[in-house]
């Protein structure tokens, strides 16, 4: 089997890649192996997630990485050395104003919608209150009800994304693809030399921007169809297999 080119930057999703999903614990032994692999490779490793910057800060500390990371689906870059985020150029004042208005509207209807929102700067992440077997049907209903609160004019300025357990809304133009471009520019790495690792549809813009892509075995069907390489194992164990394949001395 032909060895892949060795990337100069790795961008890795978190939920579904480093953990099973939101609400699931990290495998600490696997995280320790990941930290060692990152440091031994010498290749910059960046988190690329929809999570908030405080969450990203905690994980960068756990992995002992200083590479700038992506948070809130590309709306912000988080700089571990500065311990603060910086808004991406895709986030305009008008986009932030629209998101602030939408957050107030949704939160005023949370009890009626049977949902709750995460505390974030811009991205609106909405969760059904019920979990378990009711989650998927509740999520479908939540999506329909939330869209009913958004005017067609507002919807044209937004991106509405669904993950396995969450409805995420960001200003149009802010996605992981925009975040990947910004990270590559910040680190002076060509996108063609970057490796994107993701598991869900929301990761596809990032995977399209980067010259290399891979996914753990639990990836959704649309990602499996488009990824450059699919790991046999799931979640972080698949990520470890991906890094072993792409960052080894053979991949040069």
TrEMBL record:
It comes from the Bacteria. GO terms for cellular component: cytosol. InterPro entries: HAD-like_sf, HAD-SF_hydro_IIB, HAD_sf. Keywords: Hydrolase. One of its GO terms (molecular function) is magnesium ion binding. This is HAD-superfamily hydrolase, subfamily IIB. It comes from Jonquetella anthropi DSM 22815.
């Amino acid at each position: 089997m032909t060895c892949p080119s060795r990337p100069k930057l790795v961008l890795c999703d978190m939920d579904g890649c480093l953990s099973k999903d939101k609400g699931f614990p990290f495998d600490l032994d696997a995280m320790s192996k990941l930290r060692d692999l990152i440091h031994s490779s010498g290749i910059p490793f960046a988190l690329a997630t929809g999570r908030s910057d405080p969450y990203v800060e905690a994980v960068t500390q756990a992995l002992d990485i200083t590479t700038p990371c992506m948070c809130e689906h590309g709306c912000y870059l988080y700089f571990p050395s500065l311990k603060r985020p910086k808004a991406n150029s895709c986030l305009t004042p008008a986009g932030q104003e629209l998101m602030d208005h939408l957050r107030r509207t949704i939160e005023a209807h949370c009890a009626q919608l049977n949902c709750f929102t995460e505390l974030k700067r811009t991205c609106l992440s909405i969760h059904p209150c019920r979990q378990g077997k009711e989650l998927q049907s509740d999520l479908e209903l939540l999506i329909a009800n939330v869209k009913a609160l958004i005017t067609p004019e507002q919807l044209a300025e937004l991106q509405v994304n669904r993950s396995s357990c969450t409805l995420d809304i960001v200003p149009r133009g802010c996605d992981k693809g925009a975040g990947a471009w910004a990270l590559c520019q910040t680190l002076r790495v060509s996108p063609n030399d970057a490796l994107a690792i993701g598991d869900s549809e929301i990761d596809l813009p990032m995977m399209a921007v980067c010259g290399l892509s891979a996914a753990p075995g639990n990836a959704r069907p649309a990602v499996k169809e488009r990824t450059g390489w699919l790991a046999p194992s799931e979640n972080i164990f698949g990520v470890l297999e991906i890094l072993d394949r792409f960052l080894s001395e053979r991949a040069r």
